[in-house]
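Narrative summary of target 7.
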Amino acid sequence: MNTDSKESYLNMSPETAKRFKYWQARTIIASMIGYAMFYFVRKNLSMAMPGIQADLGITKADLGIFLTLHGLIYGLSRFANGILGDRFNGRYFMVTGLVLCSLCNIMFGFSSAVVMFGVVWMLNGWFQGMGFPPCARLLTHWIPPHQLATKMSIWNTSHSIGAGLVVVICGYIVSLGWRWCFFIPSAIALLGAVFLWFSLRDTPRSVGLPEIVVGNDEKANDQDRKSPEYKAFVRKMVFKNPYIWILGLANFFVYVVRFAVLDWGPTLLSEWKGVALHHAGWMVFAFEIAGITGMLLAGWATDRYFGGRGPRVCLICMVLASLFVSIFWMLNHPPMWLATAVLMGAGFCIYGPQALIGIAAANMATKRAAATAAGFTGLFGYASTAISGFGFGYLVQTYGWDNSFILLIGAGVIGSLIFALAWKAKATGYEE
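Modeled conformation, tokenized:
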């Protein structure tokens, strides 16, 4: 292949290019479905929480501790598995993680002791970290950099699809008992793992296709992930890259806003705004659906108008998300349509940065260290559960919803200021 061209895969024969596009689309769709399944066995807890409180007498602070420890362990796992994800077959890695998460959910559904809840949900947090890193590896091997923001934003809708569908499903089955919020999603996720096994393949080379080579990326096909040269490359492109650190810090505040709505949304809407629980599930679903539109538009705009510079779009989105969160806080007993509309506005805006941070980090680190960079920025994002989980739960229990919600407005403002520091960042790290 001619490595002097911008993307050498463009020089494939028509037959090879057709096969490549087929496998590219298949990889995007299969990994989207697979990652949505991880949310089926992660965000189901939010709909079960009111039932767990009523049945077992667990407080909001206790539930907040579950959310916080789960998120912290998930963040550590995503970072550790990000490093491993650049070294192992993405198909095997992802399927194993999804099966283990499903088994943890089944165990959680059979439990009644608070200690057992904590142990099982922490294990689930660790295994959840085996979901995104292999996707980052897969997508950066199948999608060229100048298309990554657009196509990976399409993939990123899996977050909202999974989280939105599970709250709607659990909003109805919770009437059978909160335990069914764990049994039924687990069964669906196990079917998803079978689908992934037969649908995914690791890299273009694994199906007899040429790898994407960008510019002078002569190391693109390097398989030695234990060499001193590779370790030095990762240190330079990830851990010594100031823009990766900025994206990680900003990700912390993006996830404070996102998770506060996603984890506490059903409880918040039912207790603070007086919404019936099954209606609250649909409102959180609307938040996620708006997020799908927002992340698609943000990804397209990044490639079309901002030359692949995701941090610039993140700044704009974060400012607007802060505005919508402020409006929601000021609403006093609003009609359901208005509360839903404002919540959708917040979802539309917050999912732009949520999607683009991982994309920007992957492009800055190049495909050789994409999973490591995504895992590193994800570590900051899930550290935010110290605030959105226990911190928010404690504040609500102590000061009420109205006073505690100011926390989310502050997170939006601080996140916006941090994104502004990355305004001058280059689109990719390939030229380095």
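The chain has one domain: 10-203+225-420.
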